[in-house]
Inverse folding.
């Protein structure tokens, strides 16, 4: 989501203005195509429009400076400015002019191939199947015209942000359309924001070994910009096992000019960053994954705290994250709620060993319905290698528990979203407890947050569910005297009973008119 808005409406996934209108128009052109397939058609075109816009802005700048030796057709001029070189046949103006032609699918494929040919970092990333018979070419031409209007006439910097917003919004809408199948490529941006706000990755190495479409990295960059930091202060590393999702991530980051080392491959069986020690790990691994082939990794060196069960990868992911943390590194990640209390297949023993190693810094229980791919409630884990690292106060032997299960508001019948204020409240509690410079003083808040000790966690058999620690919220004192309140309630009840009788009589009268009266 963008950093600023011109509208006064609350910034949610339900009221993004022009993005929503674009989505409605694009979805109308989908016809009967499956959302999972259509996703690549639309997002590929948005990406192509972005790199063409960026190219054209630089081209105009070089054209104006031609008298001083600038060459608008020199690819090196663009690469020096970290802008993708777009050959003539791939420029958006050419594609838009050819949009009505029946050969438009072949022309788009050729454009994608030409861009990959001239930009090695995009090799194998762009979709190149627009000429397939199953894709209606008239609708494709209409879609190109629709995308042509995105950021039309906007300055180059605003056009970049606008296209980025559209790309992100469309990712979310495709996630909603695909439902359970969307979990591998999309984490709701508000969940990502909680992780990012709490970890505050100002500088250092940021790693996501199951990065999906790259949302963690986008929010990290956005956090730095919002806090007047420098984008170049962080280095980004990621890995994604699903090839088509990896392509989405590469485009998602490129459209924002984010330089990242995103590898394709299975993180457990082919770790592409084996020597990386990250300052921050941000991740949303697949929940309760039973198909991770854990039986082939029984003796893996990553299993410092116990061998994870072959039927559930939760604690394999946790230990993979820990293995990649730098000496003062911190990890924040999403897991299913069962990870906080499960004792089956040795998971309870692994969790106990992690707790006893004093790695657990904070646990956050979130409400259900935050994800498109599952309705189950989830939790956030925050682990740190060193609770006495000199940056914050000495927290050895302590863990913060935050219960946010009652937060969020429903966008529709099945989807819930956290507000900006709720995200800030969760982050502020953690920063105050941790002793961040400039943070306010921390105090336990019954029903919401509490600082627990290692002995207390032992007393709960190493179960980490915040509800066990934060207690109940203080009851709000009712200033209305009991007698008055009962009088009002009784009067309201009498009114409702009378209204019920009136409605029953009206229904009976209607039934008699229809010939069904008793």
């Amino acid at each position: 989501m963008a950093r600023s808005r011109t509208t006064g409406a609350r910034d949610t996934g339900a009221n993004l203005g022009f993005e929503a209108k674009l989505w409605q128009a694009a979805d109308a052109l989908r016809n009967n195509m499956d959302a999972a397939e259509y996703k690549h058609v639309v997002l590929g075109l948005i990406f192509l429009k972005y790199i063409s816009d960026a190219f054209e802005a630089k081209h105009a700048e070089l054209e104006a400076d031609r008298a001083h030796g600038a060459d608008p057709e020199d690819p090196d001029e663009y690469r020096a400015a970290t802008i993708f070189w777009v050959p003539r046949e791939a420029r958006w103006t050419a594609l838009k002019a050819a949009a009505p032609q029946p050969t438009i699918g072949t022309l788009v494929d050729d454009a994608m191939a030409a861009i990959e040919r001239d930009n090695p970092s995009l090799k194998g990333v762009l979709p190149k199947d627009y000429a397939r018979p199953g894709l209606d070419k008239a609708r494709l031409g209409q879609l190109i015209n629709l995308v042509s209007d995105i950021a039309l006439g906007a300055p180059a910097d605003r056009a970049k942000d606008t296209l980025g917003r559209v790309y992100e919004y469309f990712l979310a809408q495709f996630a909603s359309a695909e439902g359970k199948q969307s979990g591998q490529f999309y984490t709701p941006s508000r969940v990502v924001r909680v992780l990012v706000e709490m970890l505050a990755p100002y500088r250092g190495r940021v790693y996501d070994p199951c990065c999906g479409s790259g949302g963690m990295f986008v929010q990290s960059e956005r956090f730095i910009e919002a806090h007047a930091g420098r984008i170049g202060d962080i280095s980004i590393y990621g890995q994604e096992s699903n090839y088509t999702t990896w392509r989405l991530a590469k485009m998602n980051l490129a459209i924002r000019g984010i330089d990242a080392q995103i590898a394709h491959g299975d993180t457990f069986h082919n770790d592409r960053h084996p020597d990386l020690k990250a300052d921050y790990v941000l991740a949303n691994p697949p929940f309760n994954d039973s198909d991770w082939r854990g039986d082939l990794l029984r003796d893996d060196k990553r299993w410092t705290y116990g061998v994870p069960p072959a039927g559930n990868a939760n604690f394999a992911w946790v230990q993979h994250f820990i293995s990649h943390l730098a000496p003062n590194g911190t990890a924040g990640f999403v897991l299913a709620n069962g990870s906080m209390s499960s004792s089956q297949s040795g998971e309870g023993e692994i969790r106990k060993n992690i707790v006893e190693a004093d790695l657990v810094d904070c646990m956050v229980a979130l409400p259900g319905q935050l994800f498109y791919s599952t309705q189950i409630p989830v939790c956030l884990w925050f682990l740190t290698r060193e609770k006495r690292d000199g940056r914050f106060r000495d927290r050895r032997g302590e863990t913060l528990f935050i219960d946010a299960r009652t937060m969020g508001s429903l966008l529709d019948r099945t989807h819930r979203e956290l507000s900006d204020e709720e995200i800030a409240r969760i982050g502020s509690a953690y920063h105050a407890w941790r002793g961040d410079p400039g943070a306010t003083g921390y105090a336990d808040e019954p029903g919401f947050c509490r600082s627990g000790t290692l002995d207390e966690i032992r007393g709960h058999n190493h179960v980490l569910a915040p509800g066990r620690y934060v207690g109940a919220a203080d009851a709000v004192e009712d200033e209305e005297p009991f007698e008055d309140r009962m009088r009002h309630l009784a009067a309201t009840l009498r009114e409702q009973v009378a209204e019920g009788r009136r409605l029953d009589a009206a229904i009976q009268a209607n039934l008699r008119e229809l010939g069904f009266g008793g």
Notes: The chain has a mean pLDDT of 86. The first strand starts at residue 204 and ends at 208. The chain is about 40% helix and 10% strand.
